[in-house]
Design brief:
The complex is a heterodimer. Chain A has helices at about 5-35, 80-95, 125-130, 135-155, 185-190; strands at about 50-60, 65-75, 110-115, 120-125, 160-165, 180-185. Chain A is an alpha+beta fold. Chain A has a 4-stranded mixed beta sheet with strand order 3-4-5-6. In chain A, a hairpin with a 2-residue loop joins strand 3 (about 110-115) and strand 4 (about 120-125). Chain A is elongated, with a radius of gyration of 23 Å. Mean pLDDT of chain A is about 90; it is low at about 35-45. Chain B is built from 10 helices and 31 strands. Chain B folds into 3 domains: about 30-140, Copper amine oxidase-like, N-terminal domain (Copper Amine Oxidase, Chain A, domain 1, 2-Layer Sandwich), CATH 3.30.457; about 145-260, Immunoglobulin-like; about 275-470, Zn-dependent exopeptidases (Aminopeptidase, 3-Layer(aba) Sandwich). Mean pLDDT of chain B is about 85; it is low at about 245-270. By secondary structure, chain B is α+β, with helices and mostly antiparallel strands. Chain B starts with a helix and ends with a helix. In chain B, a hairpin with a 5-residue loop joins strand 7 (about 90-95) and strand 8. Classes of the chains: A alpha+beta, B alpha+beta. Chains A and B meet through helix 4, strand 6 and helix 5 of A and strand 30 and strand 31 of B.
């Protein structure tokens, strides 16, 4: 025979377990909604510098297009920081829910290194490549969009190379080649074929 | 025995067993030689029995449709039906309602598998083509494709002449005391007496063995030898290195040929048929490409499209060769080398995507050739396409235009897409996308057929232009 006291204890424990379970589900949903959010905190870091024009080349999957948009923004004077900010801003657009060219959650640019004024190395994070949709066109739009946006901020740029987590990767998501330098002028020329 | 020594012996044995298990675990394949194509089919081992996938085996041989209804698989091959039941030995065809397999039929992931030991009996019943299966080297000959050769030792000077009924191109390994000819692509088989001894100052003996995926001919020589291929690839001559080999048929009469005019005139020189286009279904094996649904992957769509396009092109009289005809993975470099050694005029890689609509045709993102740079200039592997870019652009424009004329949204552009940049002929990549929003459309036979017909018209229209340029 179980005593009345013990029965109350067990009932309380069961209630506590259920309550904690519901709270865990609530926390999980909250965490998911934060990670699926449009922009991470790092992308909106305050920037100091003179206000200048920033041009982003936004990809549109439905129209197979690459369209420039220009707006005024405070830009850092350091060319590497300037390039990184432009790519951060571009990716933030792609991470928004109504994006015309959605990227996977967590996609980000770690760094933009300038070897000289003409050569830039863009270091993407692993999530950028691993969550990217697979296909020639969709990968081409991403790479062309990044290259042209970078070129818009760094006019001296002639070639760009992409790394993923600091390492060379064969392709972005199975198609577009990331093993070598990408010629900026050739990308600009090939972009003319896009709408 | 000291304890430490015993442990080291046991460790070595364990290591060897593990190594042996590792080698045993290497994928085994059956090499199929058919009039349509040579290809390989993976072996699946279940309960100690070797099985092969029926679809993999039959698809390259003709028009195949398959339906799965529960545990029942119905195949329709070129209009003739066959029915199999999972876990049953019994199966039936249109001509015979009661036939037996040596082991149970197997269904794995809605794909049908038959015992490898049964394929020589099974294939003629389904395809009406004769079949011969050599179990040990795992070689299957469909439709009497076997090449039987004859070997003749000739004298003054001593040389061994191997004659084949069709052109061959073996890999040749010349060592100090033997010459090895390895036939990887050709369905070369022995003629019975495969080991022969000679009492000749040059040649001690020969042997012929079939190996997994090919065959090997070995000549044990007593002097350093040289190998020459003549008569349009039908004759392989192994001769003493110091003595020049007989010139190929059709060459001006010389001492060697004059010594044996019969050899020179035995077979008229027949030019090998040259494909116009090499089709490359992208991805394969574990590299699936895009995944459209749990049952539809890019690698399968690409291969199905390649096969349809092949049939459409052949119907237009355009010779075609495929880089892959089964679900196997090739590296980019292997694809480029296949294209560059195919003697074709156009390379077409096939991709598919659920993003966007219609057909996209891509050329390599490489600089155009500099003035004075010819097709024969020495270029880095990554830029080998440069001298051919103009031809590639012409091809891309023509194919996109033909697709547009057929009512498909189409465009062409350049992209950094391997292996286009390393191909030394006109080269394009085609990516197809659904017309509507559903990616399932990519797997539909009707849609693939429409695209294949449009692509074939575009490719066929290029033939005169590209062959002239080449």
């Amino acid at each position: 025979m179980i005593s009345r006291k013990l029965q109350y204890m067990i009932a309380l424990l069961v209630l506590a377990i259920l309550g904690m379970g519901f709270y865990l589900v609530h926390l999980k949903r909250k965490a998911e909604s934060i990670s699926a959010g449009p922009v991470s905190q790092a992308l909106t870091a305050p920037v100091t510098g003179p206000t200048e024009e920033m041009t982003l080349y936004l990809a549109n999957d439905e129209e197979n297009a690459l369209r420039p948009i220009t707006f005024s923004s405070p830009l850092p004077t350091d060319p590497g920081e300037r390039g990184r900010l432009a790519l951060h801003t571009l990716i933030a657009r792609y991470l928004q829910k109504d994006s015309t060219h959605p990227l996977g959650a967590g996609a980000e640019v770690h760094d933009v290194y300038l070897l000289d004024s003409a050569s830039a190395v863009v270091n993407l994070n692993a999530a950028f490549a691993e969550t990217h949709r697979s296909g020639v066109e969709v990968e081409q739009l991403t790479v062309f969009s990044l290259v042209r946006t970078l070129k818009a901020q760094l006019p001296q740029l002639t070639r760009v190379r992409f790394l993923v987590d600091g390492k060379t990767r064969d392709t972005l998501a199975g198609h577009i080649d990331l093993t070598g330098w990408i010629d900026v002028a050739m990308v600009a020329e090939a972009s003319k074929e896009l709408k | 025995m000291p304890k430490a020594h015993s442990i080291s012996v046991r460790s070595t044995i364990l290591l060897l067993v593990l190594l042996a298990a590792g080698f045993a675990a290497a994928p085994r394949r059956i090499t199929v030689y058919a009039p349509q194509a040579n290809y390989q089919v993976d072996i699946l081992v279940r309960d100690g029995v070797d099985y092969v996938g029926l679809t993999d085996l039959l698809e390259p041989l003709g028009r195949l449709e398959s339906r799965v209804d529960g545990a029942k698989l119905t195949l329709v091959f070129n209009g003739a039906a066959a029915e199999f039941q999972d876990g049953k030995r019994q199966y039936r065809t249109s001509a015979n309602p009661r036939l037996d397999l040596p082991s149970n039929f197997l269904m794995v992931d809605r794909r049908g598998y038959v015992p490898a030991a049964s394929i020589a009996q099974l294939l003629p019943r389904i395809t009406s083509l004769s079949a011969e299966f050599h179990a040990a080297p795992r070689r299957l000959f469909v439709g009497a494709t076997q090449l039987r050769f004859s070997a003749e030792l000739r004298h003054a000077p001593s040389r061994l002449v191997l004659s084949f009924p069709a052109p061959v191109n073996p890999s040749t390994l010349i060592e100090k005391s033997r010459v090895r000819l390895i036939f990887r692509r050709e369905p070369v088989v022995g003629t019975g007496g495969d080991n022969t001894s000679y009492s000749d100052p040059f040649l001690a003996g020969t042997s012929f063995t079939e190996i997994p995926g090919g065959a090997e001919f070995v000549a044990n020589v007593l002097q350093l030898a040289t190998v020459s291929i003549g008569d349009g690839g039908r004759t392989v001559t192994i001769a003493v290195a110091a003595v020049p080999a007989p010139p190929p048929a059709g060459a001006p009469a010389a001492t060697g040929a004059a010594a044996n005019p019969a050899a020179a005139g035995q077979h008229p020189a027949v030019p090998r048929s040259r494909p116009f286009v090499i089709l490359d279904a992208a991805h394969g094996g574990y590299e699936t490409g895009a995944v459209f649904s749990p049952t539809l992957q890019e690698k399968s769509v690409n291969l199905a499209l390649a096969r349809r396009l092949q049939k459409e092109l052949e119907a237009r009289g355009v010779p075609v060769v495929l880089t892959r005809v089964a679900d196997n993975l090739l590296t980019w470099d292997q694809r480029a080398v296949s294209a560059n050694t195919s003697h074709a005029s156009l390379y077409v890689a096939l991709h598919s995507s659920s993003s966007g609509h219609g057909v996209r045709v891509y050329t390599a993102l490489v600089p155009v050739a500099q003035p004075g740079q010819s097709n024969h200039s020495f270029l880095p592997w990554e830029l080998a396409q440069s001298p051919f870019l103009e031809q590639s652009n012409t091809a891309a424009t023509a194919i996109a235009a033909e697709c547009g004329a057929e009512g498909l949204p189409a465009r062409s552009s350049a992209a950094p897409l391997r292996p286009l940049n390393s191909v030394t002929l006109a080269a394009v990549a085609v990516e197809i996308a659904p017309l509507g929003a559903a990616a399932d459309e990519l797997g539909q036979a009707e849609y693939q057929q429409k695209i294949a017909a449009a692509l074939a018209s575009g490719i066929a229209s290029l033939r005169a232009k590209l062959e002239t340029a080449q």
